[in-house]
UniProtKB/TrEMBL annotation, chains A, B:
Keyword Transcription: yes
GO MF annotation: an example: DNA-binding transcription factor activity
Keywords: DNA-binding, Repressor, Transcription, Transcription regulation
Superkingdom assignment: Bacteria
InterPro entries: HTH_LacI, LacI/GalR-like_sensor, Lambda_DNA-bd_dom_sf, Peripla_BP_I
UniProt-listed SUPFAM superfamilies: lambda repressor-like DNA-binding domains, Periplasmic binding protein-like I
Protein's name in the database: Sucrose operon repressor
Ranges where the HTH lacI-type domain occurs: 2-56
A Pfam family of this chain: LacI
Amino acid sequence: MVKLTDVAKRAGCSVTTVSRVINNYGYISEKTRQKVHKAMSDLNYQPNSVARSLQGKKTQLVGVIFPSIANPFFGELVENIEAQLFKAGYKTILCNAASDKEKERTYLQMLMANQVDGIIAGAHNLGIDEYKKTGLPIVSFDRKLSDNIPIVSSDNFAGGSLATQTLYDHGARHIYFIGNPVLDGHPTQKRLQGYRQKIQELGLTAHIHPAQFGESLELKEMAIKELLQFHQVDGIVATDDLTALTVINVAQQLNISIPDDLKIIGFDGSRYIQNYAPFLSTIVQPIAAISELLVKLLQERIAHPNNELKENTFQLPIKLLSRKSSQ
Amino acid sequence: MVKLTDVAKRAGCSVTTVSRVINNYGYISEKTRQKVHKAMSDLNYQPNSVARSLQGKKTQLVGVIFPSIANPFFGELVENIEAQLFKAGYKTILCNAASDKEKERTYLQMLMANQVDGIIAGAHNLGIDEYKKTGLPIVSFDRKLSDNIPIVSSDNFAGGSLATQTLYDHGARHIYFIGNPVLDGHPTQKRLQGYRQKIQELGLTAHIHPAQFGESLELKEMAIKELLQFHQVDGIVATDDLTALTVINVAQQLNISIPDDLKIIGFDGSRYIQNYAPFLSTIVQPIAAISELLVKLLQERIAHPNNELKENTFQLPIKLLSRKSSQ
DNA sequence: TTGTAAGCGTTATCAC
DNA sequence: GTGATAACGCTTACAA
């Protein structure tokens, strides 16, 4: 590995001078600058960012903690975040937390040990305390961690509400919500609340059919089959697109016609779903905007770790993608 | 940040001793070991891996270069790779190359600068030379980079062949291949070759309908529409599942019944497709095995960078997932 | 405008 | 068994 001293030797100057032209500060004569540049490219020199970091410089490394990126929504979100981080000069350390507390804890330690500049957390099984202990700038997607951690999410409440209204407008009167019924600060909750409120406004009765996020497909299918067979239902607000697709698949098995007998609308609206499930209506989250904001907020936190936050909750607008399944 | 000297001070010994117990070498009395451990946990000490790396230790960082992880197949693959790397004690730096040469080049430089221990390359727009210049251990998924870089892939040839045979067995006689027709070392090629050979064995005529990987959905749809409307076709081998889904969507628009009028089979078989497109037949790549092998090979390269490779090509067996669309 | 040298937090080589 | 101390490659006072 070629290093600073090699460049200095070849350029016929001191390491300080070389460092100066690299970091571009202090006074250097144009001639020296030229010489140094030439030496660097001759030797194909790459500053060692490990050494640089040790010196107290930033590592330009960011930990991105998410559940499964095999899920197209998270895949697309992480892809966008990575792109934004790259644009801002950061490298992304991918931490797939899944629902493994121990793994998440280990990752947190690794991130500290690697002196990352910050963390974007899109899932957490761990409590606030373990995150606080890192002492690192953190921003969060969709989950509240603590008061002084900015949280970005879509307007889940409006989404739940809009989905419900949409089904109603197309004639549904027995509208069910499929999702996680437990109140735990999970974003699904706001979707559910939006649903509840709208149902009430419309003078209908709320029905919540449980389906956990991490649940196996088989269990979900069973639960959905039970719903479709034994309940009077003509509209479904699904907590996410994958659940919606499962409903559609089960409905097909049961010869229930969508949208004639049953209207359904999902949530998330990844490009992937938009392209390859073109019949599915869905509430679209603004993935690009979310990513941009997450990275922007993180940069602010990194620049001013101790600033009080004037605002810690950012809700981005969702929009309806109306397709066949709800019409 | 608490550091070695702090621990040493609290434990009442020298940094050397502390370092010894951390790295667990040399002789240390049990009593000292206890004291040090206590001091470490009292202070919640985390070794600084930046400093450690500077000292010549490995960074335990691996660059993972892939095209879009929003694509469920790559999403699942990268997720599996990340899991394997984690198990082996590595952190994953996610590099989404897309088709941006400049970005890929920059990433390569960053990876060098960060002293990563190795690279897993699942896409490359750049030539071998730029990769070789890094001097880093590399393993590749699905693309040949150079003779001394191990390449892991599925048995694409067998896949193409098996897909074709399957369609034939179910009665198709006008079987088209949709994919990239250019011969460029892209894995698609082997799928195509498998198709060609099988078609020949069966005494049929080969028809290749072009569709590029990175192409926009609209263009793909147009090309497919043209195919379905103006050609006599009763079977399609698609180069990947997403293309297959597009065919199905277009067929539906054109009121072509699948599998009655047209049988189709895709390629990749991510869990996602298996779960949410349950009607689609596909050739399943063994994602878990691929990931495992990639990481294992990379570890070998890291351990012995200069060993000659006795074998540089690893083809993992595919299998058929037979569903409605091809029956 | 340029150079010398101390220091970042570890590990490793000696010496005791 | 344990402890000084040089070294890793770089940045940055401080001198010149």
